[in-house]
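ok new one. same drill as before - structure tokens go in, u give me an amino acid for every spot. 258 of them this time. try not to just spam alanines like last time pls lmao
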């Protein structure tokens, strides 16, 4: 799990903390943890979403492909194919599994730290927190096994070796991908803060989501579901007056630093 830095530095929120905040489930294994994202110095529990959109998953997401269907076989083939990437891409995928904002900030030409960009960090935190509501609610409904729980994989991110099938695994949280949801939410919000970087940010979100296949953590339909959820959440945020006010503050903050 992510370490707990002192309050003079940005704090991180792992998947177990998110789930406990949402009251959805117990903590999963370390290698399934969510990426680090910054929170206020007090507590991650103080990060308030702009609205409760937990029920959005029922509107946006179809069920994941049933095992044995053609769509599921395509999912399996996709994960196995992505096991063959070169070492540099795998190393990037490992970092994507551990970090969130730091994987997008270079595209803006900044180091995204709370001390320098409090309005932007707050905007992202609240948006990501909101996107996590329907994502983790759906995980508990669909209870899909992750690739490393179903397949024999040669490499799995966060583990020294590969994996063997474990159909009795207790943690079944593959659908939708939380990382994909977070990554796409981050990219979509940042694209509204810096429209001139939108194309690069969205391309990075696609790569960030693809990292979950490389890591053996998710199937293609999982990461696509994360993209769909993030798109729906941010579309609703566009209509939220408080979000729009915070967006203007974040734009001004970034403009002053560029």
């Amino acid at each position: 799990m992510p370490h707990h830095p002192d309050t003079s530095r940005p704090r991180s929120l792992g998947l177990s903390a998110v789930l406990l905040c949402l009251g959805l489930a117990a903590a999963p294994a370390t290698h399934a943890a969510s990426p680090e994202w910054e929170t206020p110095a007090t507590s991650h529990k103080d990060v308030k979403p702009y609205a409760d959109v937990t029920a959005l998953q029922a509107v946006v997401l179809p069920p994941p492909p049933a095992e044995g269907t053609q769509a599921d076989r395509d999912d399996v083939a996709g994960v196995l194919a992505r096991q063959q990437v070169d070492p540099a891409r795998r190393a990037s995928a490992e970092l994507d599994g551990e970090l969130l904002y730091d994987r997008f900030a270079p595209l803006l030409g900044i180091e995204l730290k709370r001390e320098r960009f409090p309005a932007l960090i707050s905007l992202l935190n609240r948006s990501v927190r909101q996107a996590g509501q329907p994502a983790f609610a759906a995980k508990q409904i669909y209870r899909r096994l992750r690739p490393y729980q179903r397949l024999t994989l040669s490499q799995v991110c966060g583990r020294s070796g590969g994996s063997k099938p474990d159909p009795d695994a207790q943690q079944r949280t593959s659908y939708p991908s939380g990382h994909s949801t977070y990554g796409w939410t981050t990219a979509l919000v940042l694209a509204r803060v810096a429209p001139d970087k939108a194309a690069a940010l969205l391309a990075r979100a696609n790569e960030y989501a693809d990292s979950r296949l490389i890591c053996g953590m998710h199937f293609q339909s999982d990461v696509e579901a994360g993209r769909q959820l993030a798109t729906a959440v941010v579309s609703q945020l566009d209509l939220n007056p408080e979000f729009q006010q915070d967006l203007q503050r974040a734009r001004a903050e970034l403009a002053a630093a560029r």
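Residues 21 and 45 are 6 Å apart (CA to CA). and btw The chain has one domain: 15-257.
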